[in-house]
Amino acid sequence: MTPSLTHLALHVRDLDACIAFYSDFCGMKTVHERDDGSDDGGFRVVWLAEPGREKDFIIVLLPGGPGRDQAEGDFSHFGFALESKAAVDAVAARAESEGCLAWAPRQEPYPVGYYCGLRDPDGNFVEFSYGQPLGPGAEGGAGA
User: Fold this and answer.
1) More exposed terminus of the chain, fewer Cβ within 10 Å: N or C?
2) Could you tell me the pTM of the whole model?
3) Contacts of 14 (CB under 8 A, 6+ apart)
4) How does pLDDT run across 38-59, given as a tens digit for each residue?
5) How far apart are CA 112 and CA 81, in angstroms?
6) CA 91 distance to own-chain centroid
7) How many Å apart are CA 38 and CA 64, to the nearest integer?
8) Are residues 85 and 127 both part of a single domain?
9) SS3 81
10) How far is CA 30 from the centre of its chain?
11) 70 is a domain residue
12) How far apart are CA 103 and CA 69, in angstroms?
């Protein structure tokens, strides 16, 4: 049997802020939510997915994380593909106005493509790209 990557789970400091970020910037939707049923609101778990990909891959957000103080040279990140360079520029402009732009848009040789980076409310880097060999823009191939 070949394993299939289905989800990534993260403990985050501010669950609602992270849900809003991934909904607003990444277009993800809550596809499942539960708590442990205790009277104090309990332990809330939220699953996020891209519309139409709910059975392919999700991000699970759990409360109680320590946050992430990701150093500038640490390029660990989540990657989202966009349909054009203009879409990358639009995300970067919005992120800059909201104070969460980490990397300004830049062009790198194939397979990296054109990208920018944001910092989510928990401190994780989130890349938005065009022209990589994955997702929208992949059709263009090298030099897209």
Assistant:
1) N
2) 0.89
3) 121, 122
4) 666 568 999 999 999 999 999 9
5) 11
6) 12
7) 16
8) yes
9) strand
10) 14
11) no
12) 16
Q: What percent of the chain is predicted at pLDDT more than 90? A: 79
CATH code for position 98? 3.10.180.10
Residue 122 in tokens: 């928990």
Q: Which amino acid is at 108?
A: E
Backbone φ and ψ of 118, nearest 5°: -120, 160
Cα separation of 136 and 21, whole Å? 21
Task: Answer yes or no: do 46 and 85 share one domain.
Answer: no
Cα 54 to its chain centre, rounded Å, is 15
Based on the fold, state whether residues 82 and 133 are members of the same structural domain.
yes
Per-residue pLDDT at 138: 80
**Does residue 1 lie in a domain region?**
no
What distances in angstroms separate CA 25 from CA 33, 58, 73, 144, one per listed residue? 20, 16, 23, 23
* pLDDT above 50 (res 143): no
124, two tokens: 């994780």
pLDDT band of 115, cuts 50, 70, 90? very high
112 pLDDT exceeds 80? yes
What's the domain count of the chain?
Answer: 2
Q: Peptide bond preceding 111: is omega within 30 degrees of 0, i.e. cis? A: yes
Higher model confidence: residue 42 or residue 105?
Answer: 105
